[in-house]
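Re: the 88-residue chain
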Amino acid sequence: MSMKRTNVYADPEDLAIIKEAAKRRGISEAEIIRQGIHLAAMANRVWDEPLFSRTFEGRGRTLSRTEVRDAVADAVRGEADPGSGTAA
């Protein structure tokens, strides 16, 4: 991937945090800044199609808080017991 050089102004405290993180992670400060730019770009991207462009069969209603909690609990139990045969 080709890259383009640019200059930005940054808060000195943010730069100090980046410097520390780069040293701790064993990567360059520039790599951390590139990752941050990529996250900002993705957060502000306008997509060509909606995230959920397909429709799915369902109950036709919004689930209750209890139904959601029970479904999540069932999934967690399934992950905790991989031999149970249930798909999460």
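Helices lie at 12-25, 29-43, 65-80.
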